[in-house]
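Example (one chain per record):
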Amino acid sequence: MREIEIGPNDEGQRLDRFLSKYLPKASPSFLQKQIRKKKIKVNKKRAQPEQCLDLGDHIQFYLYEEVLRPLEEGPRSARSKIHLSIIFENKDICVIDKPAGLLSHAASKKDYGNNVVDALEAYLIDKGDYLPRLEHSFRPALANRLDFNTAGLLIGLKSHQAALAINRGLQEGQIDKYYRAYCHGYLEGSFVINRSLDKVGQTMEVSPGGQEAVTEVEVLESHPAWSYVRICLRTGRYHQIRAHFASIGHPLVGDRRYGNKKDPLFSHQLLLSSGLVFHRIEGMEELEGRKFFSKKRGEFDRLKEEIRDVFQNERGTHAR
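Predicted structure:
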């Protein structure tokens, strides 16, 4: 028999959801069957899949270790050696300033150790804030994600309670996420793009039956061939900014997926997650009113000089 104790990062979860994290290779039907057959109990009593786990509860597994071990997550590769730029940290979260060219999460085994989540875990282990041997279901995570070539701010989550509170805050619009971007074509003023999006393959497309997506735009600088804009996301769909700007005929400069497939100007989309503003989040009151800005914003602003030269040279080439 194996027995484990529910710790601070495990409490408050349904039994079935906890078990799906503790034994990630087990199918939901297998777990349900073991609970039903009383092979998995809570405090040595018959359990129900939907029951909530409390701090200090004990789960008993009346299963052979030969059955349990293959259902656990396999050993991970060497710890990440990536140094993160952390601009704020408290007991609950880290605000991370990610560079372009770094994955938020591992997309495959070859990415282990070379992404923000693994780097955050290594950082917290070194600080003593995260002890994997004492955790059954929690791993440091991100509340938001950025594409590989998008730089800027990410919210790192240091506990299960923080994850619940911050994710709830995002869903309820209590965290404003600001971006800056360069797009093709002339834009002016302020406007809202309110177009539902649906995922088709690896891209997002405007679809009346898709998920609601709302992007607020303020134009900071306008030119005949390009514009510099500030963006506030009111929803957080996959590739939302890139898909929305392409849908209005102004794809981001360098965006070869949603714009010119052979864009000769830049090798990736010019998009920066530039700022976060926290409003009142239950359980995270100390964050209320806090504003954080990417240290890369000045460098990103200065790209306009390079973009101006590139577009002028392109027009000169076409004129000849």
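Caption: The first helix runs from residue 15 to 22.
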